[in-house]
Amino acid sequence: MALQRYFLSLVIMIGVMLTPITSYAQIVTLPDCNETPNHFFCQGQCTFDPTLPWCPQPSPSPSPSPTPTNDPIVLVPPLIASYNKKLMKKDEPGGQLDFVFGGNTFRALINKLENAGYEMNKNLFIAHYDWRQSNIISAEQYLLPVIQQAKQETGASKVDLIAHSMGGLVARSYLQGNNYANDVNQLITLGTPHTGASGAYQAWEGGQYPETWNSFIRFHIDRMEAALKKTRNMKSATRPSTFRTFFPSLRDLLPIDALVTREGNTISIPDLAEQNPLLQNLRNTFNLISDRGVSLATIGAKDQPTLKNVSLINNRTVEDADRLRWRDGHANPDPPTANSTDGDTTVLLSSAHVGSNNTTLTGTDHMNLPEKAQDEVLALLGLAEVEEHFEYQPPKKLFGITIMSPLSAVIQGPNGQILSFNRNDFGNETAEYDDDPSDPDDPKDITILDPPDGKYTITYTGTGEGEYTIITTYADDDETISSTREGVTQTGQAETEVITIGNNTISLLDDTDYQALLKEIIALAKQAKKDNLIKGYDQANLTRPVTHALNDLRLYKLRTKQGRTDATLSRLQSYYEELNEIEQVADQLRNKDNCQDLAHEILQLVQKIKLYSPPLY
Description:
Blueprint: H1 2-18, H2 40-46, E1 73-76, E2 82-83, H3 85-90, E3 98-99, H4 107-115, E4 124-126, H5 135-154, E5 159-164, H6 166-175, E6 184-190, H7 198-206, H8 215-231, H9 241-246, E7 260-262, E8 265-266, H10 277-284, H11 287-291, E9 295-302, E10 304-306, E11 310-313, H12 318-322, E12 330-331, E13 340-343, H13 349-352, E14 358-362, H14 369-372, H15 374-381, E15 398-403, E16 407-412, E17 418-419, E18 431-434, E19 444-449, E20 454-462, E21 466-475, E22 480-489, E23 494-502, E24 505-506, H16 514-530, H17 536-562, H18 565-589, H19 596-612
Parallel strand pairs: 1-4, 1-5, 5-6, 6-9, 7-11, 9-14
Antiparallel strand pairs: 2-3, 7-8, 11-12, 15-19, 15-21, 16-17, 16-20, 18-19, 20-23, 21-22, 23-24
Helix pairs in contact: 5-6, 16-17, 16-19, 17-18, 18-19
């Protein structure tokens, strides 16, 4: 249009200049536009050159309000990582969710994002949640409020979500749910089991830890399970019922692809004893992610031993039936072993990838994915490269004590280090004494990461009167051991316990190892005789039924393998008769001077032995 006006002005000018001059014609003089800028000729020139000095200049527009260059980020942690001891061990309100001690799997990625310009609680947020509960509950009660906080703090209308493992299912439960508020721009998942994980089936049906679940996960589940048995008055409950009751979120991890076989035949998902409606619904409504304008990217890993297929046989045991265990058939091998390298130790690559934007890392284990994928995450976010690589190394061994009672504790380590409420010689990165003295109902958590080998002397002192519960837990690459001890204390009463850690084990008996607990009774009787607490005949009265019970167990297992049902039942009956005799002897010791503690300890051991022994019908 401006060009047309230019030519029109030019034609008028040429026409004026070429008009023949007659006696009655006037000579046209061009105006001085600096003096008459509003002349039509001057304004005509402005149409094709608005920079001329007489042309009007537009008023400068006000500067727009600054907007964030990048969306705020909300990190959604995995199973185990979030923790509030009062909520998750006592089922009580109070306290605050935070990373469990030593379990910030996002530490390296957070450092990376901070170096890229993000700042915690200003445009970088953590959506901690009670991972025991259903992922749908976690999405509504925990993730949604953090997204709202991020938007309020930054003024942004949308956030980016970065989720590790189960955190990705929490994120998707929100994105694909009925209460989605059109406030997520991008979701990046790291090792999320979008179609489930076979290890969850082993835990849910067999009450077992998959061999590839690391010590950190096993330690915290064992510790929390023992506390919740006390809190919910379920001391006689056993796995897998405790897993199903205390950690219903494990159901949300069950595979929705047919990975379970029985006698060599694949069991279809609808024919399994337990279904996973959450993941099935997320699969059915997957298109909602793109329909709602959310960009999805996934990162998974391979070349790590991972459980893929679970093989079962029809022959369920008496214990399976009694404990509602292995309802689809007994595992074979038992326990199942990792049978694929197409995963990250926990999640198969085929489950970690969904949609079209997928990245694969090689040789990375599940817990370290956020660290190893930090550069890939920055690229997906469209951020400038940060050269420095940050590290997170989870502990290999963990030792912890939970006190749910009026007791305090002082731990002396093998090199004289002291750990107490007021002192921590191990260092804040290695050990923690978590206690709120103002709240007498607050559980005490004492944790040492990668504890040095040697002898640990623990002195417990009563801070009040009443019953106490002490839960001691240890885990390393090979084993998980947990022991619960109960008693009565009073103010100022002291009690000492010595525990030795070395050669990747601990001098602590697991509550489920009933054979070892039987042998412990023999050791207690021997020491009591040595300390002149009991006579020789008392020692014999204790050790004789223990020896007979151990022999009954040996024959019971042999007859079970032979399929001799009647002989099996007979041996099991004899076994329980021997246990009853041990209880009777311990009851008699209660009436002897200085034997009350010994009797109490033996009776606790027998109670655990009966709980975890093969059931008697």
